[in-house]
Specification:
12 helices; two-stranded parallel ribbon; three-stranded parallel sheet; binds adenosine-5'-diphosphate; 330 residues; binds sodium ion; globular; mainly alpha
Length: 330
């Protein structure tokens, strides 16, 4: 491959992706296809670390893949696949588990946070070794770059440590991946609680906009978004997180700069801004929903497309695993 290779994954743990996922991560996946040899996977192995319902997982895996296609992941240019269809992920994860220190894994703050929420005794060993599986996901494809948000930095550091350790102990085998810092990703906050990030685990369903929700409902949520005291439309995430979040979404979806928007809404009220943004959001999600629906209506075609993706992925991952097995004496 002559372009730098990039790998990224997303969990099929919701019925729909939300605007935070899209503007913070997935939109960038689409853009990276122009400059990188991209591998994108729906990480269902990761989605069973904290308990799940089989029927729901199967459904969400399909819907996730369909949404990725609908937003513009192009299976002819990129490799789009489902993680469990590529057995090398689990196979390499075991090898990496065996060169990861227990103490080292114990220092992962995401595990500490998540296991604290579930009750430390009840958290699964899978959740504990999740970052090691993530390392395997990346190293299998010899990825040069991994797009990372702040929350994933520590995990990528572990991946780099494990790659270097393996290379030192057994001979150069893995590319040591660099973090890819993305310029135009936006941090989107909760519509009802604008200092918290928009999340599928939000306290109120009115706080998030899902790509697959009824556009009229999405519009209603925008109109009832919590705004700040004062009436002026200015961008200041510190003192005016609500309005600033609306401006961020508006700017990201239209390509208009925040300054331009602030100028355009000078002398107007929050109601005007919300009304227009509600329309922008509805117009944005409608075609995504139509395309998602088209993919879901032809399950055989979707399965075939994902099978082709898995084959393409395996061409790379099986070559890496063979070298790893050879190095370690299998
Ligand atoms: P959630 O917070 O809903 O559980 P995930 O943790 O599954 O979402 O995140 C999937 C991807 O979307 C990650 O790359 C994450 O950084 C990004 N993301 C999630 N929420 C937001 C947000 N509110 N703003 C920007 N990016 C986000
Ligand atoms: Na999360």
């Amino acid at each position: 491959h002559d372009r730098p290779r990039v790998l990224s994954g997303i969990q099929p743990t919701a019925d729909s992706f939300h605007l935070g996922n899209y503007l913070g991560a997935l939109r960038n996946w689409v853009g990276l296809q122009d400059t990188h040899d991209a591998f994108y996977c729906v990480v269902d192995l990761h989605a069973i670390t904290a308990g799940h319902e089989p029927k729901l997982l199967r459904q969400r895996t399909r819907v996730s893949a369909a949404q990725l296609l609908a937003i513009g992941i192009d299976p002819d240019r990129s490799t789009l696949f489902v993680q469990s269809q590529v057995p090398e992920h689990a196979q390499l994860a075991w090898v990496m588990n065996c060169i990861t220190g227990f103490g080292e894994a114990s220092r992962m703050t995401q595990f500490k946070d998540k296991s604290a929420k579930q009750g430390a005794e009840r958290a699964s060993v899978g959740l504990f070794t999740y970052p090691v599986l993530q390392a395997a996901d990346i190293l299998l494809y010899q990825a040069d770059a991994v797009p990372v948000g702040e929350d994933q930095r520590q995990h990528l550091e572990l991946t780099r440590d494990l790659a270097q350790r393996f290379n030192t102990n057994f001979g150069k085998t893995f590319v040591v991946p660099e973090p890819y810092i993305v310029r135009d990703t936006a941090k989107i906050t909760d519509l009802q609680e604008p200092t918290a990030k928009m999340s599928k685990s939000a306290s109120s369903p009115n706080g998030l906009i899902e790509l697959l929700e009824d556009p009229a409902r999405a519009a209603k949520k925008i109109k009832s978004a919590v705004t700040d005291t004062g009436r002026e439309i200015v961008f200041d995430p510190e003192t005016k997180p609500g309005v600033s979040n609306l401006l961020t979404i508006y700017s990201a979806l239209t390509g208009r700069s925040i300054d331009d928007l602030v100028l355009a809404y000078a002398g107007k009220g929050y109601g005007d801004l919300k009304k227009d943004l509600a329309e922008v959001v509805a117009e944005f999600i409608r075609p995504i929903q139509e395309r998602t629906k088209t993919y879901l209506e032809d399950p055989a075609q979707l399965d075939k497309l994902l099978a082709v993706g898995a084959e393409k992925a395996r061409a790379v991952s099986s070559a890496t695993l063979r070298r790893v097995y050879d190095r370690i004496g299998f």
